[in-house]
Amino acid sequence: MNLCIRKGHLFDPASGLDTVSNLYIRKGEIVAIGRKPAGFEIKKQIDVNGRYVFPGLVDLSARLREPGEHFKADIASETRAAASGGITTLICPPDTTPIIDTPAVVELIHQRSEQSGKTRVLCLGALTHGLKGERLAEMYSLKEAGCIGVSNAMQPIENTEVLRRAMEYAVTCGMTVFIQPEDPWLGSGTMHEGAYSTRMGIPPIPETAETVAIARDLLLIEETGVRAHFMHLSTARGVELIRDARKRGLPVTADVSIHQLHFTDKDVESYNSLCRVKPPFRHHSDKERLIDGIKKGVIGAICSDHQPLDHDAKMAPFSMTEPGVSSLDVMLPLVMKLVDDKLLDLETAVRAITHTPSEILGLPLGSLAVGTSADLCIYDPEQRWTVSENALTSAGKNTPTLGWQLKGKVTHTLLKGRIVHKSRI
Fold first, then answer.
1. Going by CATH, does the domain composed of 56-361 fall within 3.20.20.140?
2. d(C-alpha 278, C-alpha 400), whole Å
3. Under 8 Å CB-to-CB from 244, ≥6 apart: which residues?
4. Which residue of 1, 282, 370, 371 is surrounded by the most CB atoms within 10 Å?
5. In whole angstroms, what is the distance from residue 83 CA to residue 76 CA?
């Protein structure tokens, strides 16, 4: 269908686009900006009236709770939530049930995401069979099935020799290893180690739980030459380690979860179980260094780290609750809040959720350039709304932003030129 996005504020850091103009789409592809192509007959038109038109967001980590999980969330509900948040591509970690360690599971997830038709879903395959850290997974078969990379998710690989061999195998397969850096022994607590954990009597997680793991993995990356992406950084020292590694020319990238840029361990002071996350919310100085890492390009991407949970999962005493935040619905407004608060400029913020994640994945996405897939997010920066359970599209309502007044709302999301979300307002 020939579609015209009329008078939108087209903003695309990848192509340097920052102008109010018309955008033309044909057969799921952007074919022109500005002047209508010769012979182009408009079949449908969306009047944007100066609202932002961003490339569709690319989210490097979102749990979909399917296949095989008992929670009411599934691929249909969570891809619908992603579309409502302007996300057109998301990455599913391998710790599903069953685990993504065979082509059959990859095919099942792809099939169900295609049936939903709301968001492009790509999988990370398991680095080791069953994520047990004992035997290497069949990475080549997983790549052939469509996996975009490999990871052991939150499960540690205790045997360093196994991790080294896994990295070597990933090199031969041409796959990026996605790493959640945490030492399992140091990381056995439930909140950041500091004054608040001491005062509250909660088992702590020191920053070394992250940094010891990063240091070990960087040495193996240097030895094997594997491309590696560090997920969900949470500490200032972690940012420094990645910065130094990149300066030395190591093929490493990193991301940070959006909630780490808004919350600190002080927010846990009231034993708010909605603030139970892993890695935990750190000190205010860590948050500042994470934001600075984005500014300086050390951290290339901001992800949702979406983990929808049932209501009961957050009802026990703090240390007995499940960690995780539901964040697909609020990721873009929270990123834009950083811009409104003058902590990030608009170009850096939008690049971190569109173009740079695409580069990390090695995919031609996250751009409004002519000839690219028409994945678009139309965003009204002035629309105000209150985060409530009813306002969230995700089946998971476990977010510490409940009750927040946010500014900015996605009005339309397009995937390959199809309208997959349209705001009711």
1. yes
2. 14
3. none
4. 282
5. 11
What are the start-end ranges of the H helices in 248-377? Answer: 284-295, 331-340, 346-353, 355-361
pLDDT tens sequence for the chain (425 residues): 899 999 999 999 999 999 999 999 999 999 999 999 999 999 999 999 999 999 999 999 999 987 767 577 899 999 999 999 999 999 999 999 999 999 999 999 999 999 999 999 999 999 999 999 999 999 999 999 999 999 999 999 999 999 999 999 999 999 999 999 999 999 999 999 999 999 999 999 999 999 999 999 999 999 999 999 999 999 999 999 999 999 999 999 999 999 999 999 999 999 999 999 999 999 999 999 999 999 999 999 999 999 999 999 999 999 999 999 999 999 999 999 999 999 999 999 999 999 999 999 999 999 999 999 999 999 999 999 999 999 999 999 999 999 999 999 999 999 999 999 999 75
| Dist CA 324 CA 308 (whole Å) | 7
Task: State the pTM of this model.
Answer: 0.97
* Count of other CB atoms within 10 angstroms of residue 317: 9
Q: Tell me the backbone φ, ψ of residue 85, rounded to 5 degrees.
A: -100, 10
CA-based angle 153:157:163, to the nearest 5? 105
User: What are the structural domain ranges in the chain?
Assistant: 56-361
Token code pair at residue 236:
């200032």
Reduced to 3 states (helix: H, G, I; strand: E, B; else coil), residue 298 is coil
Cβ pair 261, 234 in contact under 8 A: no
Task: Classify 244 as helix, strand or coil.
Answer: helix
Hey, how many other C-beta atoms are within 10 angstroms of the C-beta on 211? 19
> Which entry of 255, 305, 329, 380 is annotated as an active-site residue?
305
Q: Determine whether 305 is an active site residue.
A: yes
Nearest to residue 97, comparing CAs of 180, 153, 170, 166?
153
Residue that has been written with the tokens 């002071």 in this structure: 269
CA distances from 96 to 78, 164, 307 (A): 14, 24, 12
Residue 195, helix vs strand vs coil: helix
Q: Which residues, in sequence order, are CB contacts of 130 under 8 Å at separation 6+?
A: 99, 101
Amino acid at 39: G
Longest dimension (CA), the chain: 70
For residue 68 the two structure tokens come to 């095989």
